[in-house]
Amino acid sequence: MLLRPLLSRIAMLLAGAALAGTVQATPAENDAAMIRLATDSGCMRCHSVLPAPKRADGLPPIAPAWRDIAIKYRDDVRAHDTLVRTVLDGSDPKRRHWAGKVGAEAMPPNADALSAEDARVLVDWILVLVP
Ligand code: HEC
Asked: Which InterPro entries match (predicted)?
């Protein structure tokens, strides 16, 4: 019977989800190729995939976690195009979308670090990281 292994797998998953305070990564969040592209493009100097409340030195994170960005824009059909522009051109320091949640510096332009196509690929990936 296949049922018993299946049930024990489900029990393991539930036990894993119940671990107090741990943030579980989804398969997309472990996508090695995307993490490499983000790392090679310099994004991971400021961003993390999963949210961290504070940096080791106690300051707020430099930039919003990809998961938090996915949650914020999950119902916004125009988010993809807008975010690709923001990634390439940098964020407007006078119109911060993450003010108070991250450090004081806005996002500088990234167009020198990656192509428009790679920016689209990264934003596609970021936007599916809803848990
Ligand atoms: C020097 C630090 C830094 C780097 C490098 C950086 N970001 Fe950001 N990013 C930020 C900050 C800060 C914000 C928050 C801006 C705001 O408050 O509107 C942000 C916001 C964003 C947002 C959300 C924008 C919005 O309007 O909500 C996306 C998407 C994003 N970054 C993607 C990327 C990608 C992809 C890369 C790599 C190509 C990258 N970032 C590199 C600091 C950085």
From this structure: Cyt_c-like_dom, Cyt_c-like_dom_sf
Q: Give the pLDDT confidence of 55-99 residue by residue, as tens digits.
A: 777 788 999 999 999 999 999 999 999 999 999 999 999 999 999
CA distances from 55 to 29, 109, 110 (A): 20, 23, 23
Task: Give CA separation, 44 vs 10, 78, 104, 107, in Å.
Answer: 33, 24, 18, 12
Please give the distance, rounded to the nearest whole angstrom, from the Cα atom of residue 6 to the centre of ligand 1.
Answer: 41
**CA-92 nearest atom, ligand 1:** 18
Query: Top-level CATH class of 25-127?
Result: mainly alpha
Distance CA 96, CA 27 (A): 30
- Closest-CA residue to 53 (of 67, 34, 39, 71): 67
Q: Which residue has the tokens 């809803």?
A: 130
Opening angle at CA 40, ends 113 and 62, nearest 5: 80
Query: Mean pLDDT across the stretch 105-114?
Result: 96
